[in-house]
Every structure is written in structure tokens, then in C-alpha cells.
Amino acid sequence: MASKRFKIVLAIRTLSNFVVIVALVSLAFEFGPVILAEATFRKDQILGISRTVDLDTSIDQPATSSTGSVVLPQSSPQAKFGSFLNLAPQTITPVSADYGIVIEKINANAKVVPNVNPSDEKSYTSALAQGVAAVAGSTVPGEPGNLYIFSHSTDAPWNIIRFNAIFYLLRELELGDRVVMFYKGRRFDYIVYDKQIASPSDLDFLRNRYDQPVLTLQTCDPPGTLLNRLIVRAKLEGF
């Protein structure tokens, strides 16, 4: 009798442990990317580590416009712990020079999937599994108009966080920060000039058309929710 009871208790404990392990693995799968992004960013801040795009000689630099550079406020440098360690800037190699985005400040580096319908769940789910999505009808980097890129899923709660990982730290961008776009082997630097919180029903940022090259980045706010949208806009440097 005691032996049978022991086996039952053992079976229950084993099943409980299995359920806990599965739950932890599931949480790690869903929250792992954003936890890693947050931890890396905070570590870089503490140590004063900066990141910069690896300037591959195969990437062409577009000509600077004769209208002059966009002048925006820059963050004032602050002494970091890493300055005492003499840590060299770390380079970021773009995952795609054909169509990609790199945000040095938050260590974001992704392929851009073009012509994505944001109202078509199948379309944007497939795109966000590969990187970030450029809305159908967007202009391409360097051309006047609205290049609208998003990294945010609304098809299922467990995807809201996982697909948002690339732009999870977008809230850390400030006026004057740089966003680097790559398109057909060319590099285009955009400078942040605006950051706003918008309602999900506010489509003005998507519909806006500009007479200069503007990059619009969208993600969810607060991160991992459907409450609002964080919109960051940047202008092509030197246009």
C-alpha cells in the first residue's frame, strides 16, 4: 500500500516538474529576445559601450544633398564606467545590405521585408518572422515620401512580444539619434526628429506624404501590449 502511494506521489511530482519546465521554456522562448535586448542595452549604458555600423567597402555612400545637413539636438556625452576601461566601440555588421535597417544606439539589426499589407495577418506574420516590415506603398530609402516600417504583431498575444523584439528599445531613441538604412548596397543615414505616442486608430502617420525622405518607425507602447503605438520619425541626413 505504501509502495503504491509512493508511486502516485512520485508520478504527481514528476508531472508537476515537467509542467514547470515546459512553462519556463515557453517563457524563455517568448520573453527571451526582449530580455536579452534590455540586458544588453543596460550593460552597454553602464560600461559606456558604443556601437557603430561596420563600414564595409562594398557599401556605397549616397551623395549629400546641396541643401545642407539637418541640424538637430544631440545628446551630450556623459562619463561612463567604460571610459575608465578604455573599451573600443563595437561594430554591427548589417544582416542585409540589400534592404536592411541598423539602429546603433539600441543594437537593432534586421532585414526589411518590403510591400507588406499591415491589415493582412498572413502577410505581416510571415514578414515579421524574417525581420521588420515596410508597409505596402512606402517609398524606398533615399527617395522623398514616407518609408513606413513596423515591427509589431497583433495576431496573437504570444506574438506581440516576440515579434516586437527588434524595436523593443525604440523608446530609448532621442532627437538627433541615427537610424541607418541599407538599400541595394547603398547606405542612407536618417536623423530622428520626432517621437510620439499614438492611438492604434490614428492612421495619420501612415497616410502622411512628405516632399523629403522621411522614415517612420512603429512599434507597440507599452512594449508587448496593444494599448498604443510608439511612432519615431527621422529625416534623411543632408537632404
Structure description:
There is one protein chain. It is built from five helices and ten strands, in the order αβαβββαββαββαββ. It is an alpha/beta fold and 239 residues long. It has a single domain (2-236), classed as Sortase, Chain: A (Beta Barrel). The strands form two sheets. An eight-stranded mixed barrel has the order 3-4-5-6-9-10-8-7. Strands 1-2 form a two-stranded parallel sheet. It is globular, with a radius of gyration of 22 Å. The termini are far apart. Keywords: Hydrolase. InterPro entries: Sortase (IPR005754), Sortase_dom-sf (IPR023365), Sortase_E (IPR042003). GO terms for molecular function: hydrolase activity. Pfam families: Sortase.
Give short descriptive properties of this protein.
239 residues; alpha/beta; Sortase, Chain: A; eight-stranded mixed barrel; two-stranded parallel sheet; 28% strand; Sortase; hydrolase; Sortase_E
CATH class: Mainly Beta
Order of secondary-structure elements? HEHEEEHEEHEEHEE
Report the total helices.
5
The low-pLDDT segments are 63-84
What Rg is obtained from the alpha carbons, in whole angstroms?
22 Å
In quaternary terms, these chains amount to single chain
> Can you tell me the number of structural domains?
1
| Apparent shape | globular
- Tell me how many strands there are: 10
CATH topology: Sortase, Chain: A
Mean pLDDT: 79
- Largest sheet composition: 8 strands, mixed, barrel
Protein name: Sortase
GO molecular function: hydrolase activity
Pfam families: Sortase
Organism: Candidatus Daviesbacteria bacterium RIFCSPHIGHO2_02_FULL_43_12
